[in-house]
Amino acid sequence: MKIFFDVNVVLDIAIKRTKDPGIFNKLTFALESGKIKGYVTTGLIQTVSYFLLKYLDYNKTREILTIIVPMFHFLDGDEKDILNALRMDSKDIEDAIFYQISLSNQIDAIVTSDKDFLKLSNTYLPVLTPEELVRRLD
């Protein structure tokens, strides 16, 4: 199963920021065991590093990124993805771009904690919460 991970979920995994650590432990195990293939973009990791550096020092940020980056495969977007995203009925351009990149790369689902991103879910590309994804994996 090919899953695109949104920024907030990657941050949750990176800093173990959650009400239910079991959810993120299961996601991490699914990634590491190959049960799911996780996908992100380079820009997404840049955003994660920006937020980590706001709260952690450089060495800790580097240590965390060194652990989480190998868990993921990297996708590239192109002009078509961006233009298609701008045509979507979404107020969040970043989410729309991630959605279009995921569509272009035959991703099976997107996982996010962003309530607005969840509104983009449809039969072509489901957008799931971490809890929904874990239920589908069980």
TrEMBL record:
InterPro entries: PIN-like_dom_sf, PIN_dom. Residues 2-116 form the PIN domain. It comes from the Bacteria. This is Predicted nucleic acid-binding protein, contains PIN domain. It comes from Algoriphagus ornithinivorans.
